[in-house]
Amino acid sequence: MRVMGVDPGLTRCGLSVVDGGVGRKVSALGVDVVRTPADMELALRLMRVADAAERWMDTYQPGVVAIERVFSQHNVRTAMGTAQAGGVIALAAARRGIPVAFHTPSEVKAAVTGSGSAGKAQVTTMVTRILGLTEAPRPADAADALALAICHCWRAPLLERMAKAEAQAAQARKRYAEQLDRQRRKAVRG
């Protein structure tokens, strides 16, 4: 499974691509950070982020794009920029027919460190170790983008099995309701 991980942001947007193998084996194919100046017009900043993400999608051909979900931030302006950057990247993926998955920061931290409240340094250390890198990805946005891709590689099979189980349970509920309905109608006629 090839996953493009995205740590969205307007000032710094982390982009990464990893290949997931058997079990928990993952390998990094690329990582970078797109930067836009704070004094640039918002629409142009979003276009720069989207253009970079589109180049990555066209170059690496990911099977899925994993984007950090804007969960909660105290600074509303930062949260808006993060959400907007994630939105233009999700749109670029959708236009290419690439599925998009959103993961919360705590899901990502739990996947790579075992703790949903891990700090950035712990995430960077574990990403470096998991991928067997000789040096830690810098800045933190690069490590976070890799962590998102790793998280998706590891969580996707479980999420897929859960979705199948939920679909089977829904079908069983439907069949049971139909069976009860037939029995009620039969009792009314009888």
Describe this structure in words.
The chain is α/β, with parallel strands linked by helices and 190 residues long. The protein has one domain: 2-Layer Sandwich (Nucleotidyltransferase, domain 5). It is 58% helix and 18% strand. The chain has 5 helices and 5 strands, in the order E-E-E-H-E-H-E-H-H-H. The chain has a 5-stranded mixed sheet with strand order 3-2-1-4-5, with helices on both faces. Helix 2 links the parallel strand 4 and strand 5. Helix 1 crosses helix 2, helix 3 packs across helix 5 and helix 4 packs across helix 5. The longest helix is centred in the last third of the chain and has 50 residues. The protein is elongated, with a radius of gyration of 21 Å. 34% of the residues are buried. The mean pLDDT is 91.
Short description:
With 190 residues, the chain is of the alpha/beta class.
What is the CATH H-level superfamily? Ribonuclease H-like superfamily/Ribonuclease H
- Biggest beta sheet summary: 5 strands, mixed
Rg value: 21 Å
Count helical runs: 5
- Strand runs, count: 5
Strand order in space, largest sheet: 3-2-1-4-5
Stretches where pLDDT falls below 50 for ≥5 residues?
none
Order of helices and strands: EEEHEHEHHH
Q: Supply the number of structural domains.
A: 1
The top-level CATH class is: Alpha Beta
Mean pLDDT: 91
User: Can you tell me the CATH topology?
Assistant: Nucleotidyltransferase, domain 5
Percent range for helical residues?
55-70%
Distance between the termini: 57 Å
Q: From the coordinates shown, what is the CATH architecture? A: 2-Layer Sandwich
**Proportion of β residues?**
15-25%
**Shape, per Cα inertia axes:** elongated
Q: Which structural class is indicated by helix and strand composition?
A: alpha/beta
